[in-house]
Predict the structure.
Amino acid sequence: MIYRRVSMVVVTAFAAAFAALAQQPIDAQHSIVAIEKDRFHGWPANNGAWQWGDEFLVGFTQGDLSPQDGHNIDGIEQSKFARSLDGGVTWQVFDPENFLDGPDIKWLPKGKTKLETPMDFTNPGFAMRVFASGYHGNDDPEGGYYYSYDRGATWKGPHFLGAIHKHEALKGKMLTPRTDYIVTGPKSCFVFISTRQDTMGRIACIQTTDGGLTFDFVSWVTPDTTEYRAIMPQTVRLSNGDYVMAFR
């Protein structure tokens, strides 16, 4: 009941805010991030988004455009990036080497290794991309991650997401995380992941305190319910230390 009451408050608050905004004129500028004839681009929520001042980095999935029931994408699904250095006005698409590369429609990582040197989460160019199973261009039941120290220009990995898939709370569940993390120190970081069992899904919080060498289960975020499937979390930390998560 606590989870349900909190969710209703959050949804009601967002609905009221959006209703208020809808009544106000907005001076919006629209820019094309990526476009290519006969190609489909989509799902930045699945691939990650980062910001350093006026510099934005957005991940997306690219494939063949194929109008059909469901998603209009076909063929090999490639994970790419677009970067803006001017606050989103102009964008440049690029595809880093050794990043989610593979010849198959669903990419199963090869050569995934255990991280040997702890990551520095406070590096000014740090970015991390988490992957696992069940969505576009990714298929890895154990989960893993890449990380970058140069704002996504180059990436190190893939590395194991520890042994988190063996934790008692997660056994028998498919890991379906998107990229959602909050840095709490040079070697500490909360990572928010989604899981799936049959048609239902829950969101959980895991944590590393040793720079990504190991990950521990912290708690479930959403309740165990058959009323809905919870996926695609995005979390922010407020100035008072509270955390607010939006999820689908």
Q: What stands out?
A: The chain has two helices and 15 strands.
